[in-house]
Design goal:
single chain; alpha/beta; Rossmann fold; five-stranded parallel beta sheet; three-stranded mixed beta sheet; about 15% strand; globular; NADP
């Protein structure tokens, strides 16, 4: 790798997965420790003026964007301002910017898979913030790659998977939507995709734009939950037995979570040669890491 790579958010689950995978291929990241209050416009300005990497992966707000149950609007607004400034700095210093985004930019009304050509119509404040971030990056920083991911799964105890597994140990029964669909995507797989994109950018390929990635084989929330429980029983015997179907409309998060969140991944395959991997294959190592830390 000829480019000097910077990673914001090296301490979170996706950042750690990216560092692990990079180390296997002798690819290193400059991963600065964030200020106590987190990255903001001023600290980012100082950082990039001093370091000037060739490419930057922005996972600074990964947990809030992809794993938190809910995020307050004020917090998201501050993060938007920071990313706006980051995009300006990347343009000024000619830094390639890889910015993650999410299926949440869509409203979930489309039954078939969403391609990059579909017009976003986000539902909740998080989806709306991510859509504004995308627009800001596109308008400001020409040399960018926006990567929209499906249902990201990581080993953090407070994340999507961790909250589900905690309920599976605590509750007598679980209700999961059988009419809500998406692409489960373990963080190791997401890290593989980010690294593959960086390698091609290192070859000076001007492949800027927006791309979708999600694990192979779309499924329902119910199907994902059943698969996770089946694998988790290899680590814990006392998990909930009763898992019942519930309509998406009856779920407490129906107003924020898109019902249909399947992403079409043809563009990233045709452009970068990145093939979707089966998400089920990533569950054993993901759950192993989760149970080693709880």
């Amino acid at each position: 790798m000829q480019m000097r790579l910077m990673l914001l958010g090296g301490g979170n689950a996706l950042g750690q997965a990216l560092i692990r995978l990079g180390a296997e291929e002798d690819i290193g990241f400059l991963a600065p420790r964030p200020p106590e209050s987190g990255w903001d416009a001023a600290s980012l300005t100082h950082l990039l003026d001093e370091t000037r990497p060739d490419a930057l992966v922005n996972l600074a707000y990964y947990f809030d964007w992809f794993q938190a149950e809910e995020v307050c609007e004020t917090r998201l607004t501050l993060q938007e301002r920071a990313v706006e400034r980051l995009a300006e700095l990347c343009k000024h210093h000619e830094i390639r910017l890889l910015q993650p985004s999410s299926y949440r930019v869509f409203d979930g009304s489309r039954v078939t898979a969403y391609s990059e050509k579909e017009e976003p119509q986000p539902l909740g404040v998080r989806g709306q913030a991510l859509w504004r971030l995308e627009q800001s990056v596109r308008a400001t920083c020409p040399r960018h790659v926006l990567l929209r991911f499906g249902w990201l799964l990581d080993e953090s105890s407070e994340g999507r998977l961790g909250r589900f597994l905690a309920r599976a140990e605590r509750d007598d029964a679980l209700l999961l939507a059988d009419d809500r669909r998406g692409n489960p995507t373990p963080v190791d797989d997401a890290a593989r995709v980010i690294l593959a994109v960086l390698k091609q950018l290192d070859c000076q390929s001007p492949l800027w734009g927006t791309y979708h990635y999600g694990g192979h084989e779309a499924t329902t929330s119910l199907g994902l939950g059943q698969a996770v429980l089946s694998e988790a029983r290899n680590f814990r015997g006392s998990l909930v037995e009763e898992v019942a179907a519930q309509a998406h409309a009856a779920r407490p998060d129906a107003g924020d979570e898109p019902q249909h969140a399947v992403l079409a991944c043809k563009k990233i395959l045709h452009t970068f040669g990145i093939k979707p991997r089966a998400w089920r294959a990533g569950l054993p190592s993901l759950l192993d890491r989760y149970y080693r830390h709880v």
